[in-house]
Amino acid sequence: MSFSHGTVVETVRLNPRLVRIVLQIEDPESLAVRQDGDSAVGVYFPDSTQGRNYSVRQQRGDCIDLDVVLHARGPGTSWAATTRPGDRVGLDHARSWYRPGADTDWQLLVTDLSGLPATARIIEELPAHTPAVCVVEVADEADLAYLPQRSTVTLAPSVGTGNGHAPSRLAELTRALALPAGHGYCWFAGEAAQSRAVRKYLRGLGWGIEQFDVTGYWRFDSEDWDERFARVQDDVLAVYEKALADGKGDKVASEEFDEALERVGL
Questions:
Q1: Tens of pLDDT along 68-79?
Q2: 52, 224, 250 from 47: Cα distances, Å
Q3: What is the C-alpha to C-alpha distance for residues 148 and 166, in angstroms, rounded to an integer?
Q4: How far apart are alpha carbons 179 and 133 in whole angstroms?
Q5: Terminus of the chain with fewer CB atoms < 10 Å: N or C?
Q6: Tell me: the pLDDT tens digits for 127-175?
Q7: pLDDT grade for 1, boundaries at 50, 70 and 90
Q8: How many Cα atoms within 13 Å fall on the side-chain side of residue 170?
Q9: How far, in Å, CA of 74 to CA of 263, rounded?
Q10: Distance between CA 64 and CA 168 in Å, rounded?
Q11: How many Å apart are CA 182 and CA 162, to the nearest integer?
């Protein structure tokens, strides 16, 4: 498992809900931060066994920028709102999911506030002539201003919905799109139930599994869900493990695992 300590170099408030935390990685070779658009690391807070995953908005040598969304409460919000230069954290689990194929003609980016930093980086790093449609669910207009503007990117925003405060419209907005012609690729980062609905929609369109990377970044009513999952975890994890043992790969195994969750009402 990759691991390094990191030291806070600077904090910058970007808007009412986003704060940028610049970290210097003490052992960058060990941590091996990914270079993909949704590169992320696990951050473990001082004096706590708890941690959260955050997108790497930018990397400069041994320094990384983490743009952290502030919520009403939670260990990540408490850390991001109070940390100061010189504070240290643990970093591990450098990873990424964004994998558009070489034959991709256009991209569909679907996200809520949790995926906003990764979405911003993906838009910023899109090839010059690659069109994209971005379905984004935010708290207010200030959050939309955080995203880079590109002439090839069309925004389909929903302001004031989802994000744990109101019902999400991500799947609804995705289904309502008139999708471009050609070979598409979808990247999703948001609430887990919405990720399931979007993935099922894409499958219904006949998309192959290589055409999307759909990740639930968080789960509504997670404490209740965790309690219910504990009662069935052995059975549903067995589905995932069997798929891997059968050589289906992690993406298919994760899809079959999610289908097993749905069958038991999770």
A1: 999 888 899 999
A2: 14, 26, 33
A3: 26
A4: 9
A5: N
A6: 999 999 999 999 999 999 999 999 999 999 999 999 998 999 999 999 9
A7: low
A8: 33
A9: 30
A10: 31
A11: 30
Residue with tokens 């989802």: 162
Tokens 């997670």 -> residue: 222
| Residue 207: both structure tokens together | 């998309």
> Could you tell me the two tokens for 239?
């589905």
> Amino acid letter at 141?
E
